[in-house]
């Protein structure tokens, strides 16, 4: 499946499944990570995980018994099962681009402008889509002298490598999610300030068999197992465990055979979880964040006085944990006020 898609990719720093190159190589003329300064903040390293197409309904239906790793993740950290996607669209590439830029989608109102969800090469970059410069969490970490890496299960994510070629030190694309997790785990041995891991099993199964079908629920369990492997690898080293924060969300849910209706609760409601360094255990994000409001079943709009937690907060939350300023031009959590610990009493 990967072969025909390889021809669509125009970046030499991307490692593809089945290629003879090693799993991770430095991008362009970026300095080797051993020469990079490791940023010291509340966390020394942040790993953001997005489980493509994982619906809240599936997480609730399968429960603690069938999703032991996700439920353990929630018990040991700060989370909610009522976060929101971007308002305009509930599809993969636009929402993921929101996660790393901290922006809405619509370019005319300051968004990143990525409205497509395939491997097209025009527009060739996020900047071209927005019609202006667009920075990302990768840009911010790189500007501070840190190192970043992207691990994704879909080739469309090469858009990010084209958009921020000097800021993403390693881009690894592998449609085999198990192999992709192995490559990320191998990369944990390197000093890396920010990593982004995209896992695709629920979305692939949802499109093939429908959301909440047996194959779809099996794929959610597969994603749970992959998260468990990654968390176990992070925790295997006591120092790494004590200095790493893991953030986990999804780009959209789904309903029946599709997920592209941004007005459906099943499509726009997602999980948002965190655990690790500087995170309280077993707390609800809305309970410890009075400036954010649980939206119930509402879709919500931008610019609310008390907004919902959004998947687009990943970028600035990661930067806050690394003690860095927000992404230039971003909107979500730009005040860096989303707490992962309860306020002092």
TrEMBL record:
<dbReference type="InterPro" id="IPR002591">
    <property type="entry name" value="Phosphodiest/P_Trfase"/>
</dbReference>
<feature type="signal peptide">
    <location>
        <begin position="1"/>
        <end position="23"/>
    </location>
</feature>
<dbReference type="InterPro" id="IPR017850">
    <property type="entry name" value="Alkaline_phosphatase_core_sf"/>
</dbReference>
<dbReference type="Pfam" id="PF01663">
    <property type="entry name" value="Phosphodiest"/>
</dbReference>
<keyword id="KW-0732">Signal</keyword>
<dbReference type="GO" id="GO:0016787">
    <property type="term" value="F:hydrolase activity"/>
</dbReference>
<protein>
    <recommendedName>
        <fullName>Sulfatase-like hydrolase/transferase</fullName>
    </recommendedName>
</protein>
